[in-house]
Amino acid sequence: KEQVRFRSRLVAGKTPLGKRSVIELEKELGEAKANVWVHPQGVAAVVLVDNEYPMRVSFSLLSEAVRIFLERMQGKWEDTSSDQQFSVPEIEDLFQKFQNPAEADKLTKVESDLEEVKGLVMQS
Question: pTM of this prediction?
Fold first, then answer.
C-alpha cells in the first residue's frame, strides 16, 4: 500500500497542470501502469491498472472522480499545502463500479458484446 501511495504521488507530481499521462510501472508492481490526470485547479487523480484495462475508461474514471471531489469538497481543500485525507463515499463507489470496465462504460460494453457476437458468427 505504501509503495502504491509513493508511486502515485511521484507520478502526480511529475504531471503538469491540466495534463494527462500514462506511466509504465516497474516490475515490482507487476504488469501495470499509472494513469494520471492533474486538473487545472491542482487536484491530481491517479489510477493503477493492468495493461488490459482500457485507457479511455480509466481517464473517464479519473475525470468523474475529480469532478465529484471538486463539487463535494469545495472550500475544504483549497488552502491545504500538504497531503490530506478526504473521505468522499461517491468516489469510493465510483472506483468499485469501474472494477469491471464493461459494466462501467457503455462503449466498452458494446465493444465486448460485438466481439462475442463476432466469435459466434465465426464459429457458425
Answer: 0.77
